[in-house]
Amino acid sequence: MTELITILSHNLWLFSAIAFIFAAVIGSFLNVVIHRFPVMMKREWQQECNQYLNEYHKELIDPISNELERAIDGYPEKYNLIVPGSACPKCKTDIKPWHNLPVIGWLMLQGKCASCSSPISARYPIIELLTGLAVAFLALHFGPTLEFAFATVLTFVLIALTGIDLDEMLLPDQLTLPLLWLGLIINLDSTFASPSDALIGAAAGYLSLWSVFWAFKLLTGKDGMGYGDFKLLAVFGAWFGWQLLPQIILLSSIVGAVVGIMLIISKRLNKGNPIPFGPYIALAGWIAMIWGNNINTWYLSTLYS
């Protein structure tokens, strides 16, 4: 293992190529997570809701249960990240293994189902390609190190969270909270930040957006963002310390505002309609992971020069 790490350390482009192929395959699985995980959550909510209503409010079972049932209508009873296998959502034909190859499979099919010629969303190869490129870049940046391994795990989960938030405006605790604890654990050895900076960062990340949420709510009577956004920022505080939180908040706010304005101008979004903020926090946090300390150093040197 040591010899292999040494070889890869001296051949970073080879390491990056291997990382790209591996990550693109994982990207194919992330497409499954983005699509199926919300359905699994809604089914769990339905079961919990029925159990609660059956005990306390039987008269509400039908209307509320029917609403949840519509959200998961059309999916088989056994539906998780593994079962059933991938199939065309229209004709239900199983997708052949070679058609599941990252990016290449979609190109082979020319973006259409091999059986019924229904269009296959370009989002699938885009996520596979994005995942591969992101991890290939991490390979070049960190080399074959523990930091690379942890950063890769973080990248995988961030991509899944971004896709789910774009689709459902939801950042599941089942994904954000394990990331938060993982960040605190790996920094016990100061992998990315000192233990104290990580702990303060987790608390500061959550409380900063929590404070903004309640200030906005008291002033307007409306919810400005979801609690998942607080937890995602806490994740970055736990991973990289409190020092990078200001730039993550600033960058995500700027990007979110620009995208929101562009959507309103293009009439793809009406004023007052919510947009998911998680993807912008995820992007800003990923950038901070790579260049955050350099950005802070540059800013401070400019400020005090």
Q: Level of helix content?
A: 55-70%
In total, the number of strands is 0
Number of domains: 2
SS content category = mainly alpha
Quick one: biggest sheet? Answer: none
pLDDT < 50 runs, ≥5 residues: none
| Discrete helix count | 11
Q: Strand-residue fraction?
A: under 5%
Can you walk me through this structure?
There is one protein chain. By secondary structure, the chain is an all-alpha fold. The chain has 2 domains: 144 residues, no CATH class; 160 residues, no CATH class. Helix content is 70%, strand content 0%. It is built from 11 helices and no strands. It is globular, with a radius of gyration of 22 Å. The mean pLDDT is 85.
Draw up the topology in text.
Blueprint lengths: L1 H8 L2 H45 L4 H11 L32 H5 L14 H20 L3 H23 L4 H14 L8 H26 L6 H14 L4 H21 L12 H26 L2
Helix pairs in contact: 2-3, 2-5, 2-6, 5-6, 6-7, 6-11, 7-9, 8-9, 9-11, 10-11
Short description:
Keywords: Cell inner membrane, Cell membrane, Hydrolase, Membrane, Methyltransferase, Multifunctional enzyme, Protease, S-adenosyl-L-methionine, Transferase, Transmembrane, Transmembrane helix. The chain has 305 residues and is an all-alpha fold. It has helices spanning 2-9, 12-56, 61-71, 104-108, 123-142, 146-168, 173-186, 195-220, 227-240, 245-265, 278-303.
List keywords for this structure.
mainly alpha; 2 domains; 11 helices; 70% helix; 305 residues
